[in-house]
DUF3302 domain-containing protein (Vibrio japonicus), 130 residues
Amino acid sequence: MFLDYFALVLLVFVALVIFYGIIVIHDIPYEIAKSREHPHQDAIHYAGWVSLFTLHALWPFLWIWATLWRKERGWGFQKLQAEQHDIHHRVDVLIDQVERLQAEVKALKAQQATPERAPNPDAERGEEEN
């Protein structure tokens, strides 16, 4: 008789631990969102409850959604945009430098192809004597 009651208490205890364990596990994305001050933490919380009824099919996506946001950098795209702007600026500067160098090389090649004729003092004296 004692073992029957002990088995019943043990069965109820295990059922409660499993029940609350599932609730705690499904609430992990919400806790992450709350600790990071996520702007969509309420939506993540509600979607977690919906995921509970869909056998946690949404749960991995909620985890990803909760971990994407960080308070200090937001979604992280502003830094990426700033880096891309900096890269574009550097590329524009490099293109200008290459164009100037190409113009200088073209001018030097043209100068080398047609060397300047230096005045010949002997030739000028000879013409004056004639």
Notes: The chain has two domains: 1-75, 76-111. The two ends are 147 Å apart (CA to CA). Helices lie at 2-26, 28-35, 41-53, 59-68, 77-113, 121-129. The mean pLDDT is 86.
